[in-house]
From TrEMBL:
Keyword S-adenosyl-L-methionine: yes
Keyword Methyltransferase: yes
The organism of origin for this protein: Pyrobaculum arsenaticum
GO biological process: DNA restriction-modification system; methylation
GO molecular function: DNA binding; site-specific DNA-methyltransferase (adenine-specific) activity
CDD domains given in the database record: AdoMet_MTases
Protein name: site-specific DNA-methyltransferase (adenine-specific)
Chain ranges of the Type II methyltransferase M.TaqI-like domain: 106-190
Pfam families: Eco57I, TaqI_C
Domain TaqI-like C-terminal specificity stretches: 351-452
Amino acid sequence: MGRRGLVADRGRVATPPDLAFYMVEKLFRGAPPGGGSRVLDAGCGLGVFIDAVLRWCRGRCAELPEVVGVEVDPALAEAARRRFAGERVRIVRGDFLLMSAGELGGLFDYVIGNPPYVSYEYIDPPKRELYKRLFTTAVGRFDLYMLFFEKALSLLKPGGRLVFVTPEKYLYVLSAVALRRLLASYRVEEVELIREDAFGGVLAYPAVTVVVKEAPSLTTIRLRDGRAARVALPRDGSPWLSAIATAKLRTPYSLGDLVLRISPGVATGRDDVFVIPKRALSKELEPFAYPTVGGRELSAFAPGSVVDYDKLAHVILIPYDRGGRLLDEGEAKPLLDYLSRWRRVLESRYAVRAEGKRWYAFHEDPPMGDLLRPKILWRDIAKEPAFYIDAKGLLIPKHTVYYLVPKDPGMLPRLAEYLNSAEAKRWLMEHCQRAANGYLRLQTHVLRQLPVPPEVVGEGHGLGRV
């Protein structure tokens, strides 16, 4: 990345591990790998992307895919082999641009990399002529990284995903007309101009490009100043910056900017004890009871609607005060008298045995101060995102239901409407991990990143970004 200091090492600059992991998250966004998946690291060096793939999978207890790294430098290839000995990783030494799919074991579901940035004048003349015969993108004063795009796409299965970090110059230089035309024939999911110091002391204006090998659609462009837009890229090879310049760029909030908390519901460790049918609630237990809802029951309501407590069949018994303090045995005597019949079961929980919690405490102490606020609810795993409103703030969700508490309660209806919009659903479908049968995992770290348009927030909101 960047020309300064690159000539001696054929344009190679090591990718920082944090950037590599960030790119792997984009690579697997909405389409996590399985045991039968194949991942290609084009120009692997010592294997920073391979390591990031393995860390990503292990961090999510996901089955490891087959990973193939290609490296032209014999010393680096051998070092990578030693580094990943015993892993499901194969390192192939050779010129990536001249390798066939057969030599690499077939086509790939994913390709990732930081191709070498070698400008035209530093490519050996015989190689230049060879590349011109082999690649449609080798026109004019082409750079080597441009050919990596074309080669990688040829090795990608239909529907496969490619993520490269390269100079941003291909967005506008004349020599990249053929490359832009090629890329625009597929779905360029995202182009993000990342910070100029992403590679430390190297002078670079890098872009992370995400391409899916399927029919074209709108592209998300993210600029360094935080503005973003969805644009239709020109298909004729003309500079993409013109499409960006005419787009309605905006600085969205992220959902994390607007909320006090995004969390899963309470974890009691024994819902079969603490959650009881509403019809079985005695007068003595009423002071400790709150309406509760699980994922299946929540789905009975229309998306965007206010949850009607009267239609809920269960309540949850809470041995905590409204500030989240565990009640002492005198304060909670009626509740503890009831719970005592299951005391042995409750004492067998890990939180009691290993963490020293009181026998009637929850597995995790509930943040009652946030829970008892107006909030938005959703299922943790769902075929399609759907969000619901707890307008009064008295509902205690079970652990299979996530919730968010907005900083401004007045924003609740607008925010719920946006979360159920086609725009938000599309973003979530693209970014959420997949569970079994293609269901979405609507997790905290993903929801926090969801862009929220300024018009949803409203004027004079007084909310600081976090």
